[in-house]
Specification:
The complex is a heterodimer of chains A (about 350) and B (about 525).
Chain A (H helix, E strand, L loop, with lengths): L2 H19 L16 E6 L6 H16 L5 E6 L6 H9 L7 E4 L3 H7 L13 E5 L6 E6 L7 H6 L4 E3 L6 H12 L6 E3 L4 H9 L5 E4 L1 H7 L2 H4 L3 E7 L23 H15 L3 E4 L5 H16 L3 H9 L6 E2 H9 L5 H11 L8
Parallel strand pairs in A: 1-2, 1-3, 6-7, 6-8
Antiparallel strand pairs in A: 3-10, 4-10, 4-11, 5-8, 5-9
Chain B lengths: L4 H10 L4 H19 L6 H12 L4 H18 L2 H6 L10 H10 L3 H26 L3 H7 L2 H12 L2 H4 L4 H15 L2 E2 L6 E2 L13 H21 L13 H10 L1 H16 L5 H15 L3 H4 L6 H24 L5 H12 L6 H6 L1 H30 L6 H20 L3 H18 L4 H25 L7 H23 L7 H14 L1
Antiparallel strand pairs in B: 1-2
Classes of the chains: A alpha/beta (about 350), B mainly alpha (about 525).
Chain lengths: ~350, ~525
């Protein structure tokens, strides 16, 4: 083959190939991007639990408000309090906007606290928002113990406070409340499911419990109405939101003695305020992120969303937008001293001295 | 609304007499049947979770008919996997393998299926009747059972190792101890200490009992077929017996059905014991109490099918007692059922008894009717399902492997589960080969974490004073008596073919050596 023919063939080849080498000008903001596709929500909780129901409360509206109305499916990846799913989202998922993490609330806190098994950086996730962020905790004791004032509560030694497991919000929240109320040598007993704690209280195996007031009063409204329990204090998250039927209870920060304790409460409130965030892996294109953020905002403002979500989850909607959630996470105190102090409450051992 | 319970029962029945409700019941039964007979992966919790957003928009009774219909039938029809393939069925159908699979192997699959469905149906009805009677009685029973009492019950369950070990008590103890050791894997909930986790997120929550059971029973069954049958022109055992032989067996053993059904209901009522225990407790009780059981159980004794299946299916009635009357869910499915009830505006618990007793009775009626329907569906499918036992081993072996792997993957959708199930499959094969009873290991695994939890709670709440609680003393006496009778039975039969499991193992060893 002579050189001339070879050059001609090369030119023809380049002429054909060149358009293919140009990166296609795909617009992720285009409605067509999601049309006909499937969006996978990776839930870091097990099917059937509260976390799953929260995801199911959102999924149909994601389909409704994403341009192109893609199919939305839920994939479960529970384990390690959300670490397994978060690790997968961070390390294994392609950042193309077709896989969204529906993370459990502890995912951010576990990483900030430096817990074992965390293989992601929570500050590098892209947050789309959360459908609920109000997570109060209230502490109550059996009325038959006669602890109807804070003085009597503080004077009673060795109260048995029930919880689910070490590090669970019910356990850590309970220890924080006991600390700030100066309870005397409380004994924290874990290994109960939420319902089992209720039974143990009624059969006098336990004396007290810290729990979400919404959950507690939904399960046992008579505990407040008929005075079966004495209610002592509330730890509001966020601080400025009141719980309607327990407005008379003192907020725990009124018992804080110094700035360190206030920072501790801020750390806890912000971690609780993360709710159940929707997250994207790092590197997701900006246009996709914007499309998804817009869709989430539309979901939270959809008048049909709140009634549907509340029906599915039996919880009130309290959304945070992407920007609000990101801001909240960035404001979580990260100083070593405060983190070390919180770890004492999340772990075993006696409570720190005040 | 203040109406008598009889009026409520009548109104509850009339609530069902609408076309939509009956159609929903039929659809629920179909879904339940499909869940039971389809390859593993579609458990009832997932079915409930998927159905929930749809049914909460329906009228309540229609939604109840679908949900309860599905779960009731699914439990009854789940026995075909252990009988035909030697793979554990749902959480309460593991012990059925011990006698159901040998029956299938010798051509009595129809009889075994007939017995399982009939026992399941009778168990479901007894569970439903107990639900009716339990309305005034459930609450004191639930509050009677604190952590100390639950610990003793679980300890009693562990004493069943003596039965399950057959004539190899030392190997049984070793297997049970290994099961207890496996139960410690993961993050300990009382202290947060990581035990044998090696910084692997996969091991943080320990190993799944379902995956281990699938591995140690299912894979050895398939390997056994492959080693013995592949390449050998050997016809499977011809099908003998009929469905009605199984029905007659169950009717003849009606007293065993009643006892095991009450055991199942009780496990269902008491929070914290769990469905994976009920079939082992029933099997152990039957092996101890049945005449000649020590020499026939484990070799294809139909009573070894009747006992666990009746307990497993009556447990649903017990679950509903705590769900409806106390508002306490016993598992994921009942938790989702409570969510549905809340969405329809009902508050499960004492308030529901006062305000909506007719709805409670509608649930009871649906539970009873779907139990009967489930039994009839099971009978209708049995003949065709039984023919699966005659499928050539060269086809059966890969099918069993696929079922096992799919079932393992379905637990958490983690590919590491596939490795786990294969590892335990190999382990189970060697356990079987060297005569270590696998049921004893499963019992240790199931009960280990429960024992640790209840003992911890008892000591933290009461110190040592829990040992002096009246209910604890009574339960300890019962457990000790049961254990002594089991040991005495073993000693008496030591001169003869001693135990079901042991004899089965000797038979297997002989086949292996040939």
């Amino acid at each position: 083959m002579n050189k001339g023919r070879l050059k001609l063939r090369m030119k023809i080849l380049l002429g054909v190939a060149a358009p293919l080498l140009i990166v296609p000008n795909v617009s992720y903001a285009n409605e067509d991007y999601y049309a006909g596709k499937t969006v996978t929500l990776v839930a870091t909780t097990a099917p059937g639990g509260t976390g799953d129901l929260r995801v199911r409360g959102v999924a149909p509206f994601l389909k409704k408000h994403l341009p192109g109305h893609p199919t939305v499916v839920i994939e479960y990846m529970s384990g390690g309090g959300g670490r397994k799913g978060a690790n997968h989202l961070y390390n294994n998922v392609r950042p193309d906007g077709l896989t969204i993490g529906a993370a459990s609330g502890g995912v951010v806190g576990l990483a900030i606290m430096g817990e074992t098994g965390v293989k992601y950086d929570p500050d590098k996730f892209i947050y789309l928002g959360t459908a609920h962020h109000i997570n109060h905790a209230v502490i109550y004791t059996r009325a038959d113990l006669g602890l109807d004032s804070l003085e009597k509560l503080r004077a009673k030694p060795g109260l048995r406070i029930g919880g689910q497991e070490i590090g669970h919000v019910s356990y850590t929240g309970g220890r924080l409340l006991a600390y700030f109320l100066d309870m005397k040598e409380p004994k924290f007993i874990v290994g109960y499911s939420s319902r089992e704690v209720d039974i143990a209280l009624m059969n006098k195996e336990l004396d007290a419990r810290a729990n979400s007031p919404t959950s507690a009063l939904r399960r046992n409204p008579e505990w407040l109405e008929k005075g079966i329990m004495n209610w002592h204090a509330i730890m509001a998250a966020p601080k400025d939101k009141k719980f309607p039927r327990l407005e008379h209870l003192p907020e725990i920060e009124t018992f804080a003695k110094n700035d360190q304790e206030k920072r501790l409460l801020k750390l806890w409130r912000n971690m609780r305020g993360v709710g159940s965030p929707y997250i994207l892996p790092p590197g997701t294109p900006k246009e996709i992120v914007q499309t998804l953020k817009t869709a989430m905002n539309k979901i939270f403002n959809d008048p049909e969303f709140a009634p549907y979500y509340e029906k599915i989850t039996a919880e009130e909607v309290s959304p945070l937008s992407a920007d609000e959630l990101t801001q909240l996470i960035h404001e979580i105190p990260r100083d070593a001293e405060t983190l070390a102090l919180l770890k004492q409450f999340a772990g075993t051992g006696t409570l720190p001295r005040r | 609304m203040d109406i008598s319970l009889i009026d409520a029962a009548v109104q509850g029945f009339f609530n069902l007499l609408h076309f939509k409700v009956l159609l929903a019941l039929v659809v629920g039964v179909s879904i339940g049947t499909f869940t039971a007979v389809a390859p593993q992966g579609l458990g009832m919790p997932l079915v409930y979770a998927m159905a929930l957003p749809v049914v909460i928009k329906w009228e309540p009774i229609t939604g109840i008919a679908l949900l309860i219909g599905a779960s009731s039938v699914s439990a009854i029809c789940a026995a075909y996997l252990p009988i035909l393939f030697g793979i554990p069925g749902g959480g309460g159908s593991q012990a059925t393998i011990l006698d159901g699979y040998p029956m299938g192997q010798r051509g009595e699959a129809r009889r075994a299926l007939g017995a399982s469905f009939m026992a399941g149906g009778m168990g479901a009805l007894i569970g439903t009747l107990t639900l009716i009677i339990a309305i005034p009685l459930a609450k004191p029973l639930i509050y009677l059972m604190g952590s100390p009492e639950l610990f003793v019950v679980v300890l009693w369950g562990l004493s069943m190792v003596a039965v399950l070990a057959g004539n190899r008590p030392l190997k049984g103890l070793i297997a049970a101890a290994f099961g207890l050791l496996l139960a410690t894997l993961g993050q300990q909930e009382q202290s947060g200490i990581m035990r044998y986790v090696f910084d692997e997120p996969y091991l943080l929550d320990g190993l799944s009992i379902s995956i281990i059971a699938l591995g140690i029973f299912g894979i050895p069954a398939a390997m056994d077929l492959a080693v013995k049958k592949v390449g050998v022109e050997q016809q499977p055992a011809p099908l003998t017996g009929s469905l009605f032989d199984g029905v007659k067996d169950t009717v003849r053993e009606w007293w065993l059905v009643v006892r095991c059904s009450f055991l199942g209901v009780w496990v269902g009522i008491v929070p914290g014991i769990g469905s994976s225990v009920v079939d082992w407790l029933a099997y152990g009780h039957a092996a101890q109490s049945a005449r000649g059981g020590s020499s026939t159980f484990g070799k294809g004794d139909v009573r070894g099918v009747i006992a666990p299946e009746s307990a497993n299916d009556s447990k649903d009635g017990g679950d509903l007692i705590t769900t409806l009357l106390m508002g306490f869910p016993q598992g994921v499915s009942t938790a989702l059922f409570i969510v549905a009830l809340l969405a329809w505006g009902y508050l499960p618990g004492p308030e529901m008894i006062k305000r909506n007793p007719d709805v409670i009775y509608s649930v009871i009626w649906v539970q009873g009717i779907s139990g009967i329907l489930g039994t009839l569906v099971g009978f209708a499918l049995s003949n065709q399902l039984a023919k699966l036992a005659q499928v050539r081993y060269s086809i059966m072996v890969p099918v069993i492997f696929v079922f096992v792997l799919m079932g393992a993957f379905a637990v958490t959708r983690d590919t590491a589960d596939l490795i786990t199930v294969v590892v335990f499959g190999a382990f189970g094969y060697f356990m079987r080969r060297f005569g270590f009873p696998r049921p004893a290991m499963i019992l240790g695994l199931v009960l280990g974490s429960l024992m640790e939890r209840y003992l911890y709670r008892s000591m933290m709440s009461y110190g040592f004073t829990w040992l002096s609680r009246p209910a604890v003393i009574v339960l300890l006496i019962l457990a000790t008596t049961s254990f002594i009778f089991a040991i005495r039975g073993k000693i008496r039969s030591a001169a003869h073919v001693t135990s079901a499991v042991g004899a089965a193992m000797r038979k297997e060893d002989a086949q292996d050596d040939s």
